[in-house]
Amino acid sequence: IEYRPLGPILAVMPWNFPVWQVLRGAVPILLAGNSYLLKHAPNVMGCAQLLGELFAKAGLPAGVFGWINATNEGVSQIINDDRITAVTVTGSVRA
After folding, report:
1. Cα 16 to Cα 70: distance, rounded to the nearest angstrom
2. Residue 41 in contact with residue 54, Cβ under 8 Å?
3. How far is residue 6's CA from residue 73's CA, in Å, rounded to a whole number?
4. pLDDT at 1
5. Of 3, 18, 57, 74, whose CB count within 10 A is highest?
6. CA 31, CA 14: separation in Å to the nearest integer?
7. Per-residue 3-state assignment (H helix, E strand, C coil) for 55-70
8. pLDDT category, 92, cuts 50, 70, 90?
9. pLDDT in tens, 24-76
10. Where are the beta strands (DSSP E) in the chain?
């Protein structure tokens, strides 16, 4: 058995537990060799930026962890982008 990284993974995350929820998903994704694109809830974008800064300070190469502020329509466009290899969603029915 051989496991290979998938590539860029989009994570759509909710507002509650804005740091822990992301770390819980991002760490295994990053350790598996994938990059992580976070679409956080609009009211906790500061947490997304903080996590990006912490990952950078920890030595993660530029471009491996990123975050975006996108509308629902924007997220649909990102999901349809061929560069995104997987999507993980934690949230409500709306998400």
Report:
1. 18
2. no
3. 24
4. 81
5. 18
6. 22
7. HHHCCCCCCCEEEECC
8. confident
9. 999 999 999 999 999 999 999 999 999 999 999 999 999 999 999 999 899 99
10. 8-12, 35-39, 65-68, 86-89
Structure token pair of residue 46 = 């500061």
With beta carbons less than 8 A apart as the criterion, state whether 85 and 9 touch. Answer: yes
Residue 71's pLDDT is 92
List C-alpha distances in Å: 63 to 15, 37, 56: 23, 9, 10
Structure token digits, residue 19 = 């740091």
86 vs 6: CA distance, rounded Å: 8
Helix (H, G, I), strand (E, B) or coil at 39: strand
> What pTM was computed for the model?
0.91
**Contact in structure between 47 and 21 (CB atoms under 8 Å):** no
